[in-house]
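User: Could you check the structure of this?
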Amino acid sequence: MKKRSSYQIEERILLIVKEKPATYAGLERKLSTGYRTIKANCEVLERFGQVKIQEKIHPANGRSSHLVSITPQGFDTIKKAPKH
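Assistant: Sure, the predicted C-alpha cells are below.
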C-alpha cells in the first residue's frame, strides 16, 4: 500500500468531521492509521483554524478523549478544495 501524505490525511479528517465531530479513536478506525498520525494532523489543522479539539474526561473511568469538530474556516477549505 502506498503511503498517504499529510495533506491527504488532513483532507480526509476534514471530510469526516464535516458530517459530525469525531474522537481521535474514531478517526483512527475510519482512516486506518495510528494515534500519533491522527493527533499530529489534527493539531496542524487546529493551528490553522480548520478544526477545534476539545479534551473531555470520561466521568466513569477518568480517561481523557479528544473530540475534533470542524470550524467555519474548515468548511470554506472543503468547498475550495479541488474535486478528485
